[in-house]
Every structure is written in structure tokens, then in C-alpha cells.
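Predict structure. Chain length: 287.
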Amino acid sequence: MSESKFIKLLFDKNTKSGIAFPDKEFAYQFIDQLFLLVFIPRTGQTEKLAEFEKKFRSLKSHLSTLVYDVVKDGNKAQSVAEVFFEAFPSIYDSLLKDASVVSQYDPAAQSMEEVLITYPGFYATAVYRIAHNLWKQGAGILPRLFTEYAHSKTGIDIHPGAEIGDSFFIDHGTGIVIGETTVIGNNVKIYQGVTLGALNTSKDKAVSLDRRHPTIEDNVIIYPGAAILGGKAMIGHDSIIGANVWITDKIPPFSLVSHKSEISAREKVSVKEAGEDIFKVKDKKNV
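Prediction complete.
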């Protein structure tokens, strides 16, 4: 294929896309500006209340434009923006609970402000809660753009369709995956590398209508590397899930799930001898 034909092919394909989406940078600016305005302390600044209010209200127009680029309906775009900002005080309260529980239980957190400014888990949770409201309103691909932006910045992948309760605590967070139909209760703590995912990746309609992801009840702690998979998986309240476990079924409340570690006494041998014993090459006859 000649270069000119290939360029025309790309042009035709990209101008006939069936998915409407906004400018990605404009979408990212909305998240950055909202997060900066709402959560970053303004100590030492001389900004007046009227100026602050103007900036906050301008975000409503910003969001309405983003939604319009997706739904191509002015009334719908305006309605989504109005509903979002009416709900935002409640979203804000939920996020303060998230930040508060981190500040309360993480010994490394010196203040609430430190959590708001520096913690990737809080940032990912904040963007998720913003996107979840828009997801419920049917704002097309926009909520996914928001959560994938947070994913790119934090390594934490939360689908905007997931249901997450109050006082959610992500500790460290890198590598966490939370799927679309996941349900998480209140006061849940999750460490890095946890996957709340699906067992079946089929897009068959009969399968896709079922819940594909697990349910985590209240007051659960899930330690690093745990994989909890499938719609049948349910972690009962007040349970502790240890590191690197694999769960696909129901776990009753007040459970402790972990790998059994076995410790055996080692004979007095040198480290060099022990290493040689571990890595020694087998005789060819025994391979």
C-alpha cells in the first residue's frame, strides 16, 4: 500500500469513528483544576472568596462542555453538570472520610493535609468518586477517561462503575485493580497489588449480565498481592485476607485467610554450601 493510500485509510477511519469523546487534555484539566481547587491548601495566598467562587463555578461550564462532546445533547450535558455539582458536597464529605481514615490509621501520615496532597491512594479514590457520579448519569466515555488518567498517574486502576462505600483506605496502592461490577462496603482497607477482578472474560450477553467481580463486605483488610476473582467471590465482613491468596468463592465473616508458612530448623552449614545445594545442576541422567 502506498503512503498516500495509507494516509487516506487512516483519515477515513478516524473521521468515521462511532464513539464520541472529548479532548483528552481538556478532560484532564478538569480533574486537575477541581482537585487543586478543592483539596490543596491555599495557605499564604491572597485570593479572595469571590475569586475562589468564580473558579469553582467555571468548572460547571467546563464539565458541561466535556459531557456535550460525548452525548451531543445540550440539555443532557447541562443536566449532568447540574446533578454532579448538586451531589458534589456529598462526594466531598465521602472523600474527607477517606482521607480521615488514612490519617488516623497510617502511622506514616503526619497530617490530613499530607494525605490530601501526597497520597496516590487518596487521589485515585477522589477521581473514582467523581467519575462514579458521571458513570451513573450515563456520561459516555468521560468517566473512563477520568479514571484512566488517575490510573496513569498512580498505577491504581478503579473502574468508575464499581460501588465503593465510605472510609475507603488504599495503602501504597500501586498495581491495584478494581473491576466494573465490584461492590466494596464501608471501612475497607486494601494494599498494593490487590486484584478484585473477573474469572470469565467472555463478552457473551448471558455472561456479561451477571456480576463478574467480587463483593467485599464491611471492615475487611486485604493484604498485598491477593487476587479475589469472579462474581461468586464474597468476603464476609470483619475478615482479613492475607498476602498472595487466590479466592473465587465465599469467605464467611470474621475469617482469616492466609498461606500456611512452614519453618524448619536448618543444619549448621555455611551460606556458600547452602547456595550450592539450592542451585546445583542435576546429573544429566536424572534430568
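Summary: Residues 281-287 have pLDDT under 50 and may be disordered.
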